[in-house]
Design a protein that fits this description.
It is a single chain. The protein has 328 residues and is α/β, with parallel strands linked by helices. The protein folds into two domains: 234 residues, Vaccinia Virus protein VP39 (Rossmann fold, 3-Layer(aba) Sandwich); 63 residues, no CATH class. It is built from 13 helices and seven strands. A seven-stranded mixed β-sheet has the order 3-2-1-4-5-7-6, sandwiched between helices. α1 packs antiparallel against α3 and α8 crosses α9. The protein is globular, with a radius of gyration of 21 Å.
């Protein structure tokens, strides 16, 4: 199976490299994003192979898989090349247009394309009498606003879903967390102003101190949840408790978290409440570098990650989260 995966990856890469993305009718953002990926495309496909191999052992009766938050759709191409029926799902209509354009260009792509998030996926599966067996999502789980509800909705699609998520928000990698929190601090400056303006538009006659305090304490909240907090404040005059984490922040208009960092235990708790059991694996670094010395260094780091057990999580650039249904 490993050779089959490598062959499927190389087939997809060859097809992708033949595409002139400048000639495709796709958005500037998606075109630029793909152009940044292309020089490291084999590394991304190695991640797909790792995620797939840790999740799936092919069974003829289980052959429908979801590429959730699929973006440019390269994972869908890989899964399709392995013989699976693929549902691609993404909330960004420009990404949906991109994967559709790539499918038309090379004649390979997902069987079904869904625009939306988990609610739309659930409705699509219901309307089309589909019951996907597997789900893989790369660099998505750290952006989901309500992770508990997300897992519960996935369970409604299939109580026996087997799922794999990858995320660069590795809570045990100190260096990675520091970099992400620096980015969160920058984003929070912008989101704070949005929340403050929103609060001022919804509640009149607040003092400057009240407005500022409420804007600070509603960090990591989406606008409907901010409204609930404001209603409570108007009734009892009590400020909400501070957020659990001093850095995690989200877009108050969409709920999209900025690379949210969660402890592994929190993922396990959310998964357990939805009827799934979580296990974790370590990612690896790209070894294909321009300089041989640098390539050697990263090979040694990856060797350490593989061989050092739990300590490997401290070094790993990303983690994999596998969810399997709990029975009994």
């Amino acid at each position: 199976m490993k050779n089959e995966m490598k062959e499927a990856a190389e087939t997809c890469i060859a097809k992708i490299l033949k595409i002139d993305f400048n000639q495709l009718d796709i958005s500037y953002y998606n075109r630029e994003y793909i152009q940044r990926i292309i020089p490291h495309i084999r590394y991304y496909f190695k991640i797909y192979i790792q995620a797939f191999s840790l999740l799936c052992s092919f069974r003829p009766e289980k052959n429908l898989i979801v590429d959730f938050g699929g973006g440019h759709g390269f994972l869908s191409l890989f899964l399709k090349s392995l013989g699976y029926r693929v549902i691609y799902c993404d909330a960004n209509p420009w990404s949906v247009k991109t994967v559709s354009a790539i499918k038309e260009e090379i004649g390979l792509g997902p069987d079904y394309i869904v625009t939306g998030s988990v609610s739309e996926l659930k409705q699509f599966c219901l309307d089309n009498h589909l019951k996907p067996d597997y789900l893989i999502a790369t660099d998505l789980i750290e952006h989901i606003y309500d992770l508990q509800d997300f897992f519960l909705q996935l369970k409604q699609i299939n109580p026996d879903f087997e799922m794999m998520f990858t995320t660069g928000s590795n809570p045990q990698n100190f260096y990675k967390c520091r970099k992400l929190r620096q980015y969160m601090t920058i984003e929070e400056n912008y989101y704070f102003d949005i929340r403050r303006s929103f609060i001022m538009s919804k509640v009149l006659h607040l003092t400057e101190t009240e407005t500022t305090t409420l804007a600070q304490l509603t960090r990591g909240k989406i606008e409907p949840d901010i409204l609930k907090i404001l209603d409570s404040y108007k009734k009892n005059g009590q400020f909400p408790p501070p957020p659990d984490d001093p850095f995690n922040t989200c877009d108050p208009e969409t709920g999209n978290w900025t690379e949210r960092i969660l402890p592994l235990a929190t993922y396990s708790q959310f998964a357990s409440k939805a009827g799934f059991q979580a296990t974790f694996a370590r990612g690896f670094y790209n070894e294909e570098r321009n300089r041989k010395v640098v390539s050697y260094i990263f090979r040694m780091i990856n060797f350490y990650i593989r061989k050092s057990g739990k300590f490997g999580f401290v070094v790993a650039p990303y983690i994999l989260i596998r969810l399997l249904p709990k029975h009994g």
